[in-house]
Amino acid sequence: MQFVIRRVIPAIGGVFSFAAAAVVVPACGNNCSDDGFAGSQSLETCQAMSLSDSNGPSDSNSDSASAGPASASNSDSQTASDSAGSDSNSDSNSSAGTDSNSDSNSNSDSNSATDSSSNSNSNSNSNSNSNSNTNGETETGSDTEEICGANVLFAPTEPYVVVLVDQSGSMTQNFSGQTRWEAVYEALFDQDVGVVAQYESQVHFGLSLYTSFNGFDFGECPVMAETPVALNNSAAMDALYSQNVPEDDTPTGEAIDAVVPTLLALPDDGPKVIVLATDGEPDTCAEPDPQNGQAVSVAAAANAYTAGVQVFVISVGNDVSDQHLQDLANAGLGQMAPDDAEFWKANDSQGLVDAFNTIINGVRDCKLALNVEVVDGMESECRVTINDDEVPYEDPDGWQLNAPDEIELVGDACVAIQEGEVKVVIECACEAIIE
């Protein structure tokens, strides 16, 4: 018998019902269907042992063994039915080179008084002994001793995402017939295509706008306008965005630093993400001009990642150099050349919409929390597949055991579950599991 967990991650539209807690149940292989499952998201009930109720107690013993061509067989069966006085006995003996013994007793109620007895002898060429014993239930000699089945359930995981928008004066520049500021607004809040409007019930969204007024010349830096991070937050975020206008500078690094504590203070039951939308090279609070804040921004993104917050970057227009975008993306996702992280450079409204949707669609947690524990040293007795393809244990592109009750997909295995509908199955031998 094996324990199996299975998770189906739906395509966009139900993207954020991710597994935070996976229920592991015994699987009985071909008793359900060819692959042990019936249905796309759950195990249908399958039985390795059946429990059956009867109206009266029943007892039966059977032993079977076969040993060669010549055998003798004896069978003794007795039935007693008791209700309006009914007794029945039957004995049968058979032998013709066959030896088999079976005894069965059963009690049942009937409404007639009947006595009967019969004896018979016969011969056969097989040797078997069988004993079966039932008392309102049936036992088999199989290794599986539990009912398996029931649904495999996964608790939904909802990401925490802060959309960090550059509020500098250059966001007023033309962007395919509208300003950059207006294009970002539509990509976030448009009822048909806006990422916040679409997913506000599935993602804890927050909005942070950042600028400065010539660094510290006017006191605070960075200057932040923010909403709390919450579900169904589109209206509050829309209101904040609409109340503000682009002005002055771009202290991107300090703005990232300011947002990270907000995310870290939230519950640890979902991934934490900053999606940065900026249209220019960064400056700093200490040096608002010229734009020499690249190193500060990259360091802030790296620190965020180290703290547990991923940073994705979108360039609104083509004024930010590819080199800086790449450095920022790598730092924010803990990657480095030649395995560069992806960044997005949107040159029109649709490109901006696509960038936001791709990022939000891809925020999937690669950690699976189990409701059982894997026995230390028996990890190799577990098998993980993604869309029926096995992924290796303790491989940079496979899976690892972070704790007895947590499995993590890493490298290419994590990337493989980021888009579209994905089926993840984890199977462990029973001896490798502690319930």
Describe the structure.
With 435 residues, the protein is an alpha/beta fold. It folds into 3 domains: 2-49 and 150-155 and 366-434, no CATH class; 58-139, no CATH class; 160-361, Rossmann fold. 19% of the residues lie in helices and 30% in strands. It has 8 helices and 26 strands. The chain has helices at residues 180-189, 195-199, 234-243, 252-264, 294-307, 322-333, 349-361, 412-415, and strands at residues 2-9, 25-27, 46-47, 58-62, 72-81, 87-95, 99-108, 115-120, 127-129, 147-148, 160-166, 174-175, 178-179, 204-211, 223-226, 272-278, 309-316, 344-346, 367-369, 373-374, 382-386, 389-391, 399-403, 406-409, 422-429, 433-434. The strands form 7 sheets. Strands 4, 5, 6, 7, 8 and 9 form a 6-stranded mixed beta sheet that branches. A hairpin with a 2-residue loop joins strand 23 and strand 24. Helix 1 packs across helix 7 (349-361) and helix 5 runs parallel beside helix 6. The protein is elongated and about 65 Å long. The protein starts with a strand and ends with a strand. Residues 10-156 have low confidence and may be disordered.
Task: State the end-to-end CA separation.
Answer: 14 Å
Total beta strands: 26
Our count of helices gives 8
Q: Assign an overall shape.
A: elongated
Low-confidence stretches: 10-156
Reported for the largest beta sheet, the result is:
6 strands, mixed
Approximately what portion of the residues adopt beta-strand conformation? 25-35%
- Look at the structure and name the CATH superfamily of the largest domain: von Willebrand factor, type A domain
**CATH architectural label of the largest domain:** 3-Layer(aba) Sandwich
CATH-derived topology of the largest domain = Rossmann fold
Mean model confidence by pLDDT:
72
